[in-house]
Amino acid sequence: MRWTEQLLILSFLAVGVLQTATFGANVTHDHRALVIDGRRRVLISGSIHYPRSTPDMWADLIQKSKDGGLDVIETYVFWDLHEPVRNQYDFEGRNDLVKFIKLVGEAGLYAHLRIGPYVCAEWNYGGFPLWLHFIPGIKFRTDNEPFKVEMQRFTAKIVDLMKQEKLYASQGGPIILSQVSFLFS
Known about the structure:
Elements: H1 3-13, E1 19-20, E2 25-29, E3 34-36, E4 39-41, E5 45-47, H2 55-67, E6 72-76, H3 79-82, H4 97-106, E7 110-116, H5 145-164, E8 175-180
Parallel strand pairs: 5-6, 6-7, 7-8
Antiparallel strand pairs: 1-2, 2-3, 3-4
Helix pairs in contact: 2-4
């Protein structure tokens, strides 16, 4: 099994046993669909990119999404915003991912967290922090050891933060899907 396939599988396993207190539901997968409380569900998802609006706007945007029929809010995690300097993190203001995910849960919606590392959202440099370019020997979005080391470090940081805040469904939070990029050159 190639490392990209392993990474994809691990990203979905990071969710753990999918059950959520948001709706008091048990969430599983039967290889055809998500199953919530023993019933197959087709969930309607839409994207809100939290840093493209202010935290004061988030609750209203999320509520309008719910009113429009969405069940799931999907968002990328923007590496360049959260780690503008290597090992220096920013989760304040527009970068407050925890607050955004909590608001999704408070609205009674599920969350799909797309950790990246590549952001396909008309975002500068694909969401990669500029400092990453200067890592010796790095080649983006390939089976490249320097890239994998940095990517795994950032991914672990985000997953650990979500776990610490108990935001995964297996902990009673709204995150039912967590995804790491699997599209490589």
